[in-house]
Amino acid sequence: MIFACDGAIFAATVQLRKAAGVNLNRHAKVNLSTGNYTPGSSFQALLFMKKIKYYYNTNTLRYEKLETPLRVKLLRIFGFLAAALVTATLISFFAFRFVGSPSEKLLRNENERLKDTYTELNDKLKAMQQQMSELEKRDNGVYRAIFEANPIPDSARAKDLEKKLEIAKIEGMSNYELTHSIIDAMNNLGSRMQAQTVSYNELANLMKNKENILAGTPAIQPVSNADLERIASGFGYRIDPIYKTAKMHAGIDFAAPQGTPIYATADGVVKMAGFSDGGYGNHVVINHGYGYETLYGHMFKVKVRPGQRVKRGEIIGYVGSTGKSTGPHCHYEVHKNGQKIDPVYFFYNDLSPDQFDRLLKKAASSNQSFD
């Protein structure tokens, strides 16, 4: 049996002290008037001694001091520390899992602000890109069309532009991805703005040179044709006069007596003047600039020389029937950037709307060409 209470300890101590011959009352005092017992200093020291556990040994029939082995003490200390560590870990896990540390809260709030800022920037970028697209459409469809300039392809507007159907969702993107998404969009927009600036500078130069452009654009008929009766064959597939098969006729034939003057239809520089074996006979090619060239074929006589600058309405030769031709006429072609186009749309300078309508109908007639 083990006695841990003070009374048991006291009783055991009394027995031990008696066995040792110690008189506990030697230092005690008795108050005779009250009958109170005041223990001496030895007894007071005994009361304040460290608790010591004893157990009753049935073999020796004596109380013996309970000694705890060092191994047990160490195990108890280790168990206490382990339990404390596990408890602290569990408390920290649940606290950080559902509550979060102050630094995590700050980072979470900062991340939310970054996402809100990105959303705002993304909306502004979309609005700017939409405005940029409208400017590009107006540039290609209106401004450059007015000045008859070629549209600028998207590859020239932004060399590294890769159009995406939709910008990736903000959720799930890291800060690194968000940052680079904004940077890519800004670089894309900057490239498009730079290309658009170049386009507007080009258009500004075209506006300054508009008078020269108009002067260099074919605008009259190459021979005098006030009554509109000299249109013999128009642009398109016509019956070849020699092979009697349908072939592409890349110009308009103006039937006229030999020696009838042929006029330059716009200002330019003579590129070719003379005879060739290509079927045009004596012919003249004029470079008007801005992508335009005109050809005048089957001349009886050429009046200009290569390199000579001519004005609209200036005589460059006379109607003939040289080369592959079945009669005196002027074969007239208009080229735009190397492509042969219908010359009938370049007679607006000297025709009224009614006359132009009649001319269109005559030029569209399916008949046999003169060459």
Write a structural description.
The protein has 371 residues and is of the alpha+beta class. The protein has three domains: 64 residues, no CATH class; 107 residues; 133 residues, Glucose Permease (Domain IIA) (Distorted Sandwich). It has eight helices and 17 strands. Strands 6, 9, 10, 11, 12, 13, 14, 15, 16 and 17 form a ten-stranded antiparallel sheet that branches. It has a three-stranded antiparallel sheet with strand order 1-4-5. A two-stranded antiparallel ribbon has the order 2-3. A hairpin with a 6-residue loop joins strand 2 and strand 3. Helix 4 runs parallel beside helix 6. The longest helix is centred in the middle third of the chain and has 45 residues. The radius of gyration is 56 Å and the shape is rod-shaped.
Main sheet, how many strands, which sense, barrel?
10 strands, antiparallel
The CATH C-level class name of the largest domain: Mainly Beta
Query: How many domains comprise the coordinates?
Result: 3
Large-scale geometry: rod-shaped
Q: Calculate Rg over CA atoms.
A: 56 Å
pLDDT < 50 stretches: 1-6, 20-37, 159-171
Distance between the termini: 139 Å
Q: Secondary-structure element sequence? A: EHEEHEEHHHHHEEEEEEEEEEEEH
Estimate the mean pLDDT confidence: 75
> Into which percent range does the helicity of residues fall?
40-55%
CATH architecture name of the largest domain: Distorted Sandwich
Number of alpha- plus pi-helical segments = 8
CATH H level of the largest domain: which superfamily? Glucose Permease (Domain IIA)
Structural class: alpha+beta
